[in-house]
Amino acid sequence: MTKLSVEYIQPSSPTPQHKRNIKLSYLDLLHRPTYASILFFYEAAVAGAGADQSQIIRRLKDSLADTLTSFYSLAGVVHVGKDDAHIDCNDTGAEFIESRVDVVLADVAAERNVDDLGPYVVAESETKAPLVVKVTFFKCGGICVAISLLHLAADGGSAAIFADAWAKTCSGKPDFAPPTFEAAEYFPAREFPDHHNGKFMPLGDENFATKRFVFDEEMLRVLKRKAASKSVPYPSRVEAISAFIWEHFIAMANSSPEPSTGAIYPAIQAVTLRGRTNPPVNLKNVLGNCYMLAFAKHEATGDSAGGEEGFYQKLVQEMRNSIRKIDGDYISRSQEGDDYLKDLQGFSARQAAGELMDGCVFSSWCGFPLYEIDFGWGRPVWVSTAAVTVRNTTILMGTRSGGAIEAWVNMEKDKVDLLQRKIDLILEEDRH
């Protein structure tokens, strides 16, 4: 890959002085200063095969500058000190990288190999810019637009909101609702030494890898049917996949096929707060980290049959119950009090004491309309993330057809094939 240029794109209009200091919320401060990325791949036929690439770049840069007038926090500088944590919206600019690769997009889209995606994103930025964009041209004329947001400043929902606004501006239809920056008013910064997310969600090391698994429509129908129970008669696709992966993480943690009696296996789920508060408009379009973690725990009893409900069904029920806890009342108590932080602290303490087995983490991006992101070239042929860095973490993403779901799983390398075999057996076991 050849890097052609690096530039900082400033908002097309200066950010007013009274908007230049955005406080970080305690939900922001729970994160590491690492980047989360979404990659959009567009075919040459619609991205402008034979077109002047300099014109495409100019159009992207100009529309980005216009979009940043509304998303001005992404053009600032993040400061985290002992007594103050904020974004200085000083219009330093978003980092914009242009590159070219001697590869055909069709090959990347056909193989969809996680290990091949590293060059298309920026994993680190020396300036820790809140937003880094990397635009890569394939030799066939196709384009990859990679959007990376600093997790201290924004979450996956923020990335989707921003991508939608930028694409609409680029295509000449800037009819988006401007974001709000009020997260810190609802969740002001607190002191919580040693109780950040990284405490109980460690990064994977050289023994871990990210693998992309695909659950097609038929697999999903089988899993939803098997996941259904009297307690959860209509499980969602995300619940069915998450519980399936959790079940097999539990099995892989044991030498025997059944969980060890007395062992506690946690599953951590990211739950968006957008639309969950009362009234829902409060956080609907907020830019920043706007989610909480739900903690499901399964204690093995040695009886995996579980009476009327099987083991897999019980995991689905436990995951749903943990999410339901994060309702309007819980969110209000976490604004005015410390309910959420106490839950984080309690989970972290139990983990440190060795009371919990290694947990797995789930984040669903299936609700984001990522395949509708159109810069004027039509819908992307593929939307992906990059390698997942947090240990035992799964990111679920929709597909272009809308029927299947991709699961991007960070896990121990020597267990990847075990999970793949379990997935391959979904339909075979159902036929028997």
Supply the key terms.
2 domains; alpha+beta; six-stranded mixed sheet
Overview of the molecule:
The protein is of the alpha+beta class. The chain folds into 2 domains: 2-186, Chloramphenicol Acetyltransferase; 197-431, Chloramphenicol Acetyltransferase (2-Layer Sandwich), CATH 3.30.559. Helix content is 31%, strand content 23%. The protein has 13 helices and 15 strands. Strands 1-6-7-8-3-13 form a 6-stranded mixed β-sheet. Strands 9-15-14-12-10-11 form a 6-stranded mixed β-sheet, with helices on both faces. Strand 4 and strand 5 (85-88) form a beta hairpin. The radius of gyration is 22 Å and the shape is globular. The N and C termini lie far apart (48 Å). The mean pLDDT is 88.
Put the structure in a nutshell:
The protein has 432 residues and is α+β, with helices and mostly antiparallel strands.
Shape: globular
Percentage of helical residues? Answer: 25-40%
Q: Tally the beta strands.
A: 15
Question: According to CATH, what is the topology of the largest domain?
Answer: Chloramphenicol Acetyltransferase
In DSSP terms (H or I, runs of 4 or more residues), the helix count works out at: 13
**CATH architectural designation of the largest domain:** 2-Layer Sandwich
Strand content: 15-25%
Give a short account of the largest sheet.
6 strands, mixed
Number of domain modules: 2
Q: Identify the CATH class of the largest domain.
A: Alpha Beta
Instruction: State the distance separating the first and last CA atoms.
Output: 48 Å
Structural class: alpha+beta
CATH superfamily of the largest domain: Chloramphenicol acetyltransferase-like domain
| Mean pLDDT, all residues | 88
Low-confidence stretches: none
